Amino acid sequence: MKGQVVYKLQGKSLEAAKELEQFAEAYWKAQPPVVYPINMLDLQNRSRAIYAGMMEKLQAERPDLVKSCGLDKPVVRVSGGQYEEWPRAYAAWPEIFSTYTGPKSEYFMYAPVGHDGSVFKPEDALELNEKQAERAGNLLWAGGWQDNAPFAHRPDEGTSVPANFDPKKAPEGYPNYFADADNTVRVFKAGGASLAALEDLKAREQAHSAATTALFDHIKSMAPETMQLRRPDGSSGDIVNVYANLSMREAWQGNPPEVMISVRIEHTGEPVHVADTDGYIVTGPASGGDVRIVPNLATEAGKKFRDLLADPNIARADVRNYPALRYPAAKDDLNGQFQEAAADDYGGLPIRRTFGSDEYLIYRVERKDNDKSLPGPHGAVEVSPQAFLWLEADSTDRSRGITPPPMPPEIAAELDALKPQPRGSAPQPAP
């Protein structure tokens, strides 16, 4: 079963799409403009909030459009259920896109298919075959080189897996990095020596972040906040607000760290010429509009730049210096599925995740070589791949603004058993 149906809208569904487009354009135009600089997370949260506000207004003022565009009756999709993944169910709604603005624009609806084959059918619309759907995708996104956003967006909402769910009829989901036909994971909740090593590593990473922030803040304080543009004929143009973007290449092979800066126009992000300031000197171009800078040691500001750059915490903590995190910890115990745990490679080192206040160490292994008798990191407690994959999917959902599905009782019981027991109490059997 395919995961979605693509329709070309025409007739009454096309009329509804155009009305929805006008409603959405008016709503977005009424929102405050984006103020740069802005990070990607804040930009995504802003977009989600605007879509949510627009949906409330649309439901209150145009329930007819909500109905005709399929935004009132979701289908229930189910993903996962293969290998170590538990199935996850979501309520999902259609989305409408257009190719251009103006009379030549074409309008398409992407409608999710439910686990039972249910799908919204817009009135008068033409269901596209695979080749036609591929053409529509190229028009909308140009093979991934073009952005396009739906007129209205309702994020998926997690729900319980339907009792009549049949895994054999479920749409094929996205490949899972951690669990597939050839690979799985061993997962451990850090504790004892492994937790102590991890906490030290995290403390060093936080110190590195603080040192980098102090360095970048100082450089930004030396960068211009306004700039007078030049016209093509060389005459003076407008005075505009600008901001600085910074990046750093850490020390490597005996070379000192390098700092790169670009100065960009507020609201547009367009790069402008970077000149020397009291505290730094431009030494040459880098890439993407950036230039390399070094401290101007003739000034106090430049000397502070030098001192901040020389902070030992500017060097990032190296996970290879933490043998307690390798799996297995002792080099002589290594199984063939891992590279030799030598000091100059990353063999046997974990992927790290934090869920709530708990730290997890994840080791990707090949199924054919997976020897579960091998010890994990010192002091760590093994966790099932199923529990980890559920927590990982929950985390991904939240980062995308999706409400996760309810946790299966079996996974909830396993995670509860991992919690520290109050002193003097005995573990309770799972219900």
Summarize the structure.
By secondary structure, this protein is of the alpha+beta class. The chain has helices at 11-29, 40-61, 63-68, 130-141, 192-222, 300-309, 385-399, 409-417; strands spanning 4-8, 75-79, 88-92, 95-98, 107-112, 126-127, 157-159, 183-189, 226-230, 236-249, 258-265, 271-272, 280-285, 291-295, 351-355, 358-366, 381-383.
Task: Chart the SSEs and their pairings.
Elements: E1 4-8, H1 11-29, H2 40-61, H3 63-68, E2 75-79, E3 88-92, E4 95-98, E5 107-112, E6 126-127, H4 130-141, E7 157-159, E8 183-189, H5 192-222, E9 226-230, E10 236-249, E11 258-265, E12 271-272, E13 280-285, E14 291-295, H6 300-309, E15 351-355, E16 358-366, E17 381-383, H7 385-399, H8 409-417
Antiparallel strand pairs: 1-5, 1-6, 2-3, 3-7, 4-5, 8-16, 8-17, 9-10, 10-11, 11-12, 11-14, 13-14, 15-16
Uncertain regions spanning at least 5 consecutive residues: 329-344, 425-431
Q: How many alpha or pi helices?
A: 8
DSSP strand content = 15-25%
**Biggest sheet, open or closed, and with what strands and sense?**
6 strands, antiparallel
What oligomeric state best describes the polypeptide chains here?
single chain
Helix content: 25-40%
Return the average pLDDT rounded to an integer.
88
Radius of gyration: 27 Å
Given the C-alpha coordinates, what overall shape results? flat
Q: How many angstroms does the end-to-end distance come to?
A: 36 Å
Number of strand segments: 17
Secondary structural class? alpha+beta
Element order, helices and strands? EHHHEEEEEHEEHEEEEEEHEEEHH
